[in-house]
Write a structure and sequence with these properties.
HTH_LacI, alpha/beta, elongated, six-stranded parallel beta sheet, 434 Repressor (Amino-terminal Domain), transcription, 399 residues
Length: 399
Amino acid sequence: MGAKQGRALPKLVGGLAPTACCYVFWRACEFNCGPKSLDEVVWRRLAGLGKSKCMAEEERKVRLVDIANRAGVSRAAVGHILNNSGLDSVRVSEATRKKVLKIAEELDYRPNRAAQRLRGMPTKIIGVVLDTVNRAVFSARLSAIEAEAHARGYRLMIGQAHHDTDEIKTYLDDFADHGMDAILCMFDVMQDFRPKLKKVFRDRNNIILHSSPILKTQPCVRVETSSAIEQLVDHLADRGRKRVAIQLWSPTDQLMSIRADAWKENVKRRKLATSESLIWTNPEATQEPSRDAIDDCIQKLVVKNKADAIIASNDEWAVRIMQGLHRHGYSVPEDLAVTGYDNLDIADVIEPGLTTIDQCHAAYAKAALDLVEESLQGDIPPSKRLRVIRPELVVREST
């Protein structure tokens, strides 16, 4: 046997306890022993049972009862503190709560979400289905939602649907199978696939929609687009602009339709030019502004129809329009005022600074999480299912 000089291998006994098996297995490895130098049966027991027991003991999750024993309190009290169980029947002092939380942190306790789900308890996990062409805005909104969820003790699981109703259904099914407490559907509902979604969402509970519900009973959070256009038109009219144009990126997007209607209503209210020739819709029907599209927009709205202000569909379009105007020999804001929408970082970087609309993501996130928690308590009354966020005008030098 290739043992080191002066060291003897401990005697092996067939009926070793698991802890002894672990010890002897480690010692056998240290001495470079194998089946030829140890009893075959004992070796196999060490390699199979002993090693697996060692690993099992090493990897065993901390249980509520482990924390309870160390804290000297009941398991029910620990469950109440860590998992919100027994809300009506368990009471604990603040000192006990702090003690249990400290021990849980020391033992690296992690809740068993699968066990919670089987017992019908909240998992404190929210599913999020994303699908948007406006990635920058939804990324900022998602960040605000994650921060609000974290503050309330929730975690997020996220999927992207890629404008595919089958993919949306798959994510809804997956999230339901994993016991999500609720699901946030953060996607722009394009008119062309709204009918298909009615079947997908039927008989599903605790789902919060963005902008508008698919089914009448669904709660949703919406940023009031018409209010944003009203604020922009008022601001431009107050600055003396008479021919306020609006740029839209798609003829089928629901939000673009709402903006067009709000523009018509508000330029009429402020007694400004109301010709529909001051509405320009991207013929390419894409949200990304190409150079050709920008030149066409300027030609139709400024050169031909003498617009003295342009309300762009978002900050990226606004910046590209400002650059295009400069190429064509116009100055902003001396010749034309330009406004954006979304208040992205670029709005404060570009020269001149861009007047735009802030969609108030923190307020949106709070409203969404309020709806999640209210839906978990039961049916939300019809009058409280819609939460409307009023956006804010951010004035900079472009107007």
